[in-house]
Design goal:
Strand content: 35-45%
CATH class of the largest domain: Alpha Beta
Order of helices and strands: EHEEHEHEEH
Shape: globular
Number of helices: 4
Number of strands: 6
Distance between the termini: 7 Å
Number of domains: 2
Largest sheet: 6 strands, antiparallel
Radius of gyration: 15 Å
CATH topology of the largest domain: VC0802-like
Helix content: 25-40%
Oligomer: single chain
Length: about 130
């Protein structure tokens, strides 16, 4: 479990918008490690260099908010996430939202959690 910076921005809900943002970051050698996009245009990104990515996006006139989130890798199997969630609950940390993915056949899954207190969650995990 690690604390990472998540970038939040609103984008138009139109064809090509997400592709353009991904291409922009790729051209600047910023790797996206997780993303979530909802129907309202709320885009959440976890990248390998949040300072650089935020600067690039702001240069393109996106309004970018930054937030500490919990980023955790878990085994890709039934029940693997439950102990992490239990640990957060027992430490009094509320999970406000989450998104996750694992490639088919992958041994691990990546989970991003927007929590009420990222530092407390990481501390409870011994980080």
């Amino acid at each position: 479990m690690a604390i990472r910076t998540e970038l939040n921005l609103r984008v138009p809900n139109s064809p090509g918008t997400l592709a353009a943002i991904c291409r922009l970051l790729a051209d600047e050698r910023v790797n996206i490690t997780a993303l979530a996009l909802d129907t309202s245009g709320q885009l959440r990104l976890v990248v390998d260099n949040s300072v650089r990515a935020a600067g690039i996006l702001r240069e393109r006139h996106y309004q970018v908010a930054e937030r500490n989130v919990v980023f955790v890798s878990v085994a890709n199997g039934p029940g693997a996430l439950a102990p992490v969630l239990t640990q957060a609950a027992e430490s009094g940390v509320n999970i406000e939202y989450a998104y996750a993915a694992a490639a088919e056949g992958s041994a691990t899954a990546a989970v991003v959690m927007g929590v009420s207190d990222a530092e407390r969650a990481a501390s409870a995990a011994g980080l």
